Amino acid sequence: MKTFSKGGVHPAGHKELSNAIAIRNAEVKGTLIFPMSMHIGAPAECLVKVGDEVNEGMLIGKAAGFISANIYCSVKGVVKEIKDIFLASGMKTKAVVVETAEDFKPGEVQFEASDWEKLTPKEIVDKIAAAGIVGLGGATFPVNVKYSIPPDSKVDALVINGVECEPYLTADHRLMLEKTEQLFKGMRIIAKAINAPKIFVGIEANKPDAIQRMTEFAAKNGGDIEIVPLQLKYPQGDEKQLLKAVIDKEIPSGKLPIAIGAVVSNVGTVNAVYEAVALGKPLYERVVTVTGGGIKNPGNYLVKVGTKVGDLVEQCGGFTDDAVKLIMGGPMMGFTFSDLDTPVIKGTSGILVLSASEAKKGQRTACLQCGRCLKACPIGLQPTKLFKKINSGKYAEALKLNLMDCKECGCCAFVCPANIPLVQGFRLGKRMAPKPPKKG
Amino acid sequence: MNNNFIIESSPHLHHPDSTSRIMLDVIIALIPAGIWGVVVFGVHALIVIAVSIIGAVLGEYMMCKVFKKFTLTDYSAVLTGLLVGYNMPPAVPLFVPFLASLFAMLIVKWAFGGLGCNWMNPALGGRLFVFFSWTGYMTKWTAPATNFATIDAVGGASPLGFVKTGMMDFNGSVSGPIEYMKQAGYDVSYMDLFLGNISGCIGEVSALLLILGGIYLLYRKVITWEIPGAYLITFALFTWVFGGLKFTHSLFTGDVLFNLLSGGLMLGAIYMATDMVTTPLSSKGQIIFGVGCGFLTFLIRFYGSFPEGVSLAIVLMNMVVPLIDRFSKTKVFGVEPVKKGAKK
């Protein structure tokens, strides 16, 4: 079975908490919060004001610039307030607060379906842009930008990311099992948009049922979609590691996958693309895994974007008594937060609540120079050296040791027996490092 | 509504290994060889080990007071003390291991900043300090209880020391060290060397138990194969090619097994050359380090004035670790290695 060659770790999966639980619709109630910035790029321009009536699927934020994304309301209701809020990542952004109408019934709004097979690539990309789709794996990069292939580049392969290498998360796993047909259509749509001759789907071996189901579908669907089972290893869901594993090519440092003729999309994104292009439905809800030892009833939910985390947790039976850590995303790269009014955004793949025993960390000691971080780093960096440079303020020297190639995957800090907060150090270093001179 | 959830940087999961767990694993792996040492050399050996540990812990405690830290719970001081004890001859006066441990802690470890900052293996530093200060005490051996009659007859000499001294004015021709010793009235077999029915330092005699401990450490992933592997293979290779010259006067006749099983090689290669703090970070660097240790051990054992070269070889290689680290850079994903001679 294939995998990437350098580094990687094997954290305990804990996927059994939710991987057998089918996706359910989350309830909608009370107020929802729509940040104008839940993507990489410029914040969307707010189109509503306090007192305005809004509806499910209504555009409330307009993409401001090429790298930006439209924001849609997910409920029927009234704009109560427009204020600044903090996202789980700590970023401050303007947000629209909507009070749900009493008579709101989800799914009442009808969208205009279209025959995507008759659309040109340009029309497909435009529809994707209009629907406000961003990478749902967590990077939240506007997908229409990714699918606008520069004229001097050619796509050899579309690689679909079904790896879901973060422990605990099962949203993509459930999608592959429950929305298989949609996903295959979605892949065809993307392949048409970017003119990809070949489609690969990478799935890690801890999802044998998904591999089997997807393989069966692929067999019925012509030969150009290949399901690639991958050996279990974190962080295989990162596009660098995924492409190394699936097509055995390395993305050059600082470049995008298109540099090696590849485009990578997450299965969640594929699902959103299908709904947007074939069904005409913009992106305002997504599958979120609510899980962890600190949650009474873990599960997978189709959640309206803007739903407050507190409301979602309440539907899952609430917190257990020993819940100590609230995380948006997975345990390896997710952000901790404490405000239960923080909204679910487009990039929220999971709400993870760790119990005291799960969040247990050892005592921090001095660095032993054991070199485990070097062996774990999938990029081949020297984490301990980098950390020491940053700790002593030598940011420029850290840059020379390829600090900017660090993706903060957390492998180094995961294995560190001295419990040194390496990733935190690298985040600091990246902020403090002198900016490279602009080319040209 | 705000709750008291922990706010901190990812990752939020952690591998169960910790510094203290690593130290504890090495201590566990060393215990059988120590028990064997006490069984064959008597209760004084146990007291030597105890005094070594007390000296090391005392040294660490003193420095903790000075630096206002508390690091005794990481067990690294206990481990250093244990290794100092294992590197002592069984009958050594008690002040020697005590001073060795204190030196290891105060000078070798803490003068450079404590755990993780020292460039020399503390236990070896301590051993070398007392070795050159009280060479007489440090080279006086005791015959093991399991092979007392044979070895006491030759004054308790260790096989390596016996061969080294004897070969100085030897002009004849024998097949190898075992046969040479037999002719000189010192009858030990490979099995004696392997099991530890020989004289030597308290913790170094039983190759079998040291190797078993090494397998445990490999299984626990506390050590990796690079250093012990490169060390033992390099040493074995040089010994095989050149080690027989003195005995048979021809190449490729060295007695590899005798040299691997005698002296402190197993203790050094598995437990001391693998000390994380004083060895290179990368796989590549660790192999270079191991090869260097193997080559230097060969040089000192066969051409130096001491019968044993393990501790000196490791300490010499400790010195060049920063250099090795500098030249054994890892390849960064998606970055082409800079070609030789090309300007940065």
Describe the biggest sheet of chain A?
6 strands, mixed
Q: In one word, what is the shape of chain B?
A: globular
Work out the number of β strands of chain A. 17
Identify the CATH homologous superfamily of the largest domain in chain A.
NADH-ubiquinone oxidoreductase 51kDa subunit
- Please tally the β strands of chain B and state the result: 0
Structure description:
The complex is a heterodimer of chains A (440) and B (344). Chain A has helices spanning 121-130, 143-147, 171-178, 180-194, 208-220, 239-247, 267-277, 309-315, 372-376, 383-391, 395-400, 411-415, 422-432; strands spanning 24-25, 31-35, 45-46, 53-54, 59-62, 71-72, 77-86, 92-100, 157-162, 199-204, 225-230, 262-266, 285-291, 299-304, 323-328, 335-336, 350-355. Chain A has 440 residues and is an alpha/beta fold. In chain A, strand 15 (323-328) and strand 16 (335-336) form a beta hairpin. Chain B folds into two domains: 19-138, no CATH class; 147-327, no CATH class. Chain B is built from 18 helices and no strands. In chain B, helix 2 packs antiparallel against helix 3 (76-86). The mean pLDDT of chain B is 91. The interface between A and B is large, with 69 and 44 residues.
List the helices and strands and how they pair.
The complex is a heterodimer of chains A (440) and B (344).
Chain A: E1 24-25, E2 31-35, E3 45-46, E4 53-54, E5 59-62, E6 71-72, E7 77-86, E8 92-100, H1 121-130, H2 143-147, E9 157-162, H3 171-178, H4 180-194, E10 199-204, H5 208-220, E11 225-230, H6 239-247, E12 262-266, H7 267-277, E13 285-291, E14 299-304, H8 309-315, E15 323-328, E16 335-336, E17 350-355, H9 372-376, H10 383-391, H11 395-400, H12 411-415, H13 422-432
Parallel strand pairs in A: 1-14, 9-10, 9-12, 10-11, 13-17
Antiparallel strand pairs in A: 2-8, 3-5, 4-7, 5-6, 7-8, 13-14, 15-16, 15-17
Chain B: H1 19-41, H2 43-67, H3 76-86, H4 95-109, H5 122-133, H6 135-138, H7 148-152, H8 159-167, H9 177-183, H10 190-195, H11 207-219, H12 226-242, H13 245-248, H14 256-261, H15 265-272, H16 283-303, H17 310-319, H18 321-327
